[in-house]
């Protein structure tokens, strides 16, 4: 190329070699090399290392669904009056274990279980027969309609249990002696003293969906008894106490069943479902003498007559007396009564009044062998720190109107469960949580003898048992001499038979197959945090970190917070679990976050009752605080944060998104409560009172998610519900859909036809989790697909996502 200047042509060329600046060239080359090196280092730093070969294979979604990855828990069934228990071994056979000799005896093999596709069994008191349920149809959470086989242990033959109404039963259960049994058909009770005897009909007033005898109605099954029956045998087997529920005045909730695709018309299902502030079922507790068929009704406390109240606990003190716990509808005042079998008369033995909260209804007394005392968990004040749950010893004499009380434990910690009592040594065993570290649960013992040296000085039996045994369960035999210890975390659960004076006897379940399956898997790592929410208060948080995460690297990972928030529950514990979230973390590099805010369990009643009568307030604030805290961690991508929850967790998720704080870019609510007026009376009123004017109407209005619809504009939202949900009705999501539509909010919905609250029928569960996973990947990457395709890029700070119009 040439350029002319005037009449003289000059060639535009560089200087001669002699004129070149070698020093400048060298410096330039060094700069180029340095820049290239920095670029390479930056790429290395922001690109997660492909360490699959070093750390193992990913724990995938398919693994999560695979039954071989399900944890096996061990639940011994202790035999009355013996140091023995029964269980099904790894082959599925029914085995009896003798704790004294450590020997096992065969009862029945697995072939009959397989033949009938039966899973549940009940062994008669004389160990001559086994009840096997099959062709089981789930009704609600605990209730079923099923057929039963009676297996003869001696002949190894089985035959159908037949009742006057055919082969289908709502409940069947053995008595405490011999092989007598009780069963329920069409809401009526029947009794067979012997297998070969004709059944005797005990009640005649049962009406489907209205009058229930020996089985609970919907709300008592779900919120009080957590059982499929309401029958309690006397220890000698001569009497039963049963509950009769009357739902005729309860409002009926009706929902559509779409049924088979070939049916051109849909069906309706109606259930008696008392919602907050509406009419409750009534009930009668009846004692029935099975020898002479006489019946007496138990009399409730005079303070509860002519007003709404509940019964929450029934325990036979001995053959002639029954302990009953009564509770007012407000659920802040409880009376413990001791009632006589012969006439049904009751004496009020003890009262519990909650201050600024509710009375726990799921407590069960444990009586001494002579019946003179019982042990029960009650709130005890610890100065300005408020009340904590502790064990009280209460006199149960029928001669005294009020039993004298003495606490056996005290201090700033919570007793969660009484698990055993050694009557001979006067030692009680219990599970407790230290309030300074509610992640752990340990087994303790203390003397019940006020003259003993260790009286009120509990000993922790498992605190130093094993480093990976920090969350325990315990199941004791009747004598209190032997127990099955469950080390349920942080390691894979293992169950050991132990003697209270001799240590370990035998390992009963160690989940060795699960250990083998996980040995080559790259599993998430748990990290715990104390998150400040004020100058003097902290909440506990937990993160599941991807196996490839290196905190020193500059790459930041997206985070999904999993929430629940029901009062008294805990998400941040050291209990082992394998969940859908684990597959997200291992496969897609998504950090999983958990938080236990105010209202969670294990930290005393002041903490527990923090959101009393104000759902959607402090627990929402604490979830937001945790989201901000996690967002500030160097390895968390602050522009890729999501939250999800199911049921009460769906309410908390929606409350967070509807807060207008814009902490999370995306959220998923599964079967959420969106208006507490729509949920059942017992659960809702326990924590929120009623929605009536003059009670707590304003708090109900303030917690209504539909009223927060406009704030969903700043986040992506996926709403999921089953149309056949008998628990949290589809009505909740339907009303939120209307509100979001009217607010012109773009969102996504996933409806599951005829599916109940658990969303586990057919292919529903697989489809559910795939739908949520796809939504999250789209949220974090901008499009559906594998997260790995985009995770090599460093964090890109973004403005909050704007919904499409």
TrEMBL record:
GO function term, MF aspect, one: aminopeptidase activity
Domain Peptidase S9 prolyl oligopeptidase catalytic intervals: 577-781
A single GO cellular-component term on record: lamellipodium membrane
Compositionally skewed regions (Basic and acidic residues) per UniProt: 786-805
Domain Dipeptidylpeptidase IV N-terminal: 124-493
InterPro entries the UniProt entry points to: AB_hydrolase_fold, Pept_S9_AS, Peptidase_S9_cat, Peptidase_S9B_N, Serine_Prot_S9B/DPPIV
Region (Disordered): 785-805
Membrane topology (UniProt): Single-pass type II membrane protein
Lineage top rank: taxon: Eukaryota
Subcellular location: Cell projection, Invadopodium membrane; Cell projection, Lamellipodium membrane
Keyword Transmembrane helix belongs to the record: yes
Transmembrane annotation, as ranges: 25-46
GO BP terms: proteolysis
Keyword annotations from UniProtKB, A to Z: Aminopeptidase, Glycoprotein, Hydrolase, Membrane, Protease, Serine protease, Signal-anchor, Transmembrane, Transmembrane helix
PROSITE patterns membership: PRO_ENDOPEP_SER
SUPFAM superfamilies for this protein: alpha/beta-Hydrolases (SSF53474), DPP6 N-terminal domain-like (SSF82171)
Protein name, per record: Uncharacterized protein
């Amino acid at each position: 190329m040439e350029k002319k200047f005037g009449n003289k042509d000059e060639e535009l060329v560089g200087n001669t070699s002699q004129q070149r600046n070698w020093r400048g060239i060298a410096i330039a080359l060094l700069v180029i090399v340095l820049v290239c090196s920095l670029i390479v280092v930056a790429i290395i730093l922001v690109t997660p290392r492909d360490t699959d070969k070093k750390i193992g294979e990913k724990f995938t979604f398919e693994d999560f669904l695979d039954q071989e990855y399900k944890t096996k828990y061990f639940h011994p069934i202790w035999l009355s009056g013996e140091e023995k228990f029964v269980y099904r071994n790894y082959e599925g056979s029914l085995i009896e274990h003798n704790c004294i000799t450590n020997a096992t005896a065969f009862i029945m093999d697995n072939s009959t279980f397989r033949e009938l596709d039966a899973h549940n069994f009940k062994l008669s008191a004389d160990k001559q027969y086994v009840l096997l349920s099959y062709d089981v149809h789930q009704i609600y959470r605990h209730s079923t309609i099923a057929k039963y086989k009676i297996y003869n242990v001696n002949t190894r033959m089985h035959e159908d249990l037949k009742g006057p109404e055919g082969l289908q039963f709502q409940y069947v259960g053995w008595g405490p002696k011999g092989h007598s049994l009780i069963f329920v058909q069409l809401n009526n009770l029947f009794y067979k003293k012997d297998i070969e005897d004709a059944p005797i009909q005990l009640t005649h007033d049962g009406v489907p969906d209205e009058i229930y005898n020996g089985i609970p109605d919907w709300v008592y099954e779900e919120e009080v008894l957590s059982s499929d029956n309401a029958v309690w045998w006397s220890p000698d087997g001569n009497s039963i106490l049963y509950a009769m529920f009357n739902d005729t005045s309860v409002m009926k909730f009706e929902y559509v069943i779409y049924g088979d695709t070939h049916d051109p018309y849909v069906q309706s299902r109606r259930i008696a479902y008392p919602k907050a502030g509406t009419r409750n079922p009534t009930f009668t507790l009846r004692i029935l003498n099975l020898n002479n068929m006489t019946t007496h009704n138990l009399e409730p406390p005079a303070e509860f007559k002519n007003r709404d109240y509940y019964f929450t606990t029934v325990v036979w003190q001995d053959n002639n007396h029954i302990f009953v716990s009564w509770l007012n509808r407000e659920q802040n005042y409880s009376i413990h009564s001791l009632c006589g079998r012969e006439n049904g008369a009751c004496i009020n033995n003890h009262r519990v009044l909650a201050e600024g909260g509710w009375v726990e209804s799921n407590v069960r007394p444990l009586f001494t062998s002579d019946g003179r005392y019982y042990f029960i968990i009650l709130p005890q004040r610890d100065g300005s720190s408020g009340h904590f749950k502790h064990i009280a010893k209460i006199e149960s004499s029928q001669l005294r109107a009020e039993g004298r009380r003495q606490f056996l434990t005290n201090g700033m910690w919570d007793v969660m469960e009484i698990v055993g009592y050694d009557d001979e040594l006067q030692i009680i065993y219990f599970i407790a949580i230290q309030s300074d570290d509610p992640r752990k649960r340990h087994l303790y013992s203390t003397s019940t003898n006020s003259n003993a040296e260790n009286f009120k000085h509990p000993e922790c039996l498992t605190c130093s048992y094993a480093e990976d045994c920090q969350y325990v369960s315990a199941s004791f035999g009747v004598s209190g001499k032997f127990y099955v210890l469950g080390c349920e975390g942080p390691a894979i659960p293992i169950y050991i038979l132990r003697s209270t004076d001799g240590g370990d006897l035998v390992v009963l379940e160690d989940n060795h197959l699960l250990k083998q399956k996980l040995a080559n898997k790259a599993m998430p790592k748990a990290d715990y945090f104390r998150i400040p929410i004020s100058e003097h208060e902290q909440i506990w948080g937990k993160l599941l970190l991807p196996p490839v995460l290196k905190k020193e690297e500059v790459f930041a990972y997206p985070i999904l917070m999993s929430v629940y928030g029901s009062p008294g529950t805990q998400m941040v514990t050291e209990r082992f679990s394998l969940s859908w979230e684990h597959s997200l973390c291992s496969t897609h590099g998504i950090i999983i976050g958990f938080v236990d805010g105010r209202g969670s369990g294990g930290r005393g009643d002041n903490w527990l009752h923090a959101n009393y009568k104000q759902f959607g307030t402090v627990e929402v604030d604490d979830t937001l605080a945790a989201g901000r805290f996690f967002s500030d961690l160097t390895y968390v991508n602050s522009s890729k944060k999501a939250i999800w929850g199911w049921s009460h967790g769906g309410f908390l998720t929606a409350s967070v998104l509807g807060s207008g704080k814009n902490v999370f870019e995306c959220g998923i609510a599964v079967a959420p409560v969106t208006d507490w007026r729509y949920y059942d009376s017992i659960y809702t009123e326990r924590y929120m009172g009623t929605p009536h004017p003059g009670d707590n109407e304003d708090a109900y209005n303030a917690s209504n998610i539909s009223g927060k619809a406009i704030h969903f504009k700043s986040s992506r939202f996926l709403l999921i519900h089953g149309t056949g949900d008998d628990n949290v009705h589809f009505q909740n999501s339907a009303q939120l859909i209307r509100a979001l539509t009217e607010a012109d909010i773009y969102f996504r919905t996933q409806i599951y036809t005829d599916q109940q609250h658990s969303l586990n029928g057919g292919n529903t569960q697989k489809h559910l989790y795939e739908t949520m996973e796809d939504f999250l990947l789209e949220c974090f990457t901008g499009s559906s697909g594998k997260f790995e395709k985009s995770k090599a890029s460093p964090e890109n700070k973004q403005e909050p996502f704007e919904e499409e119009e």
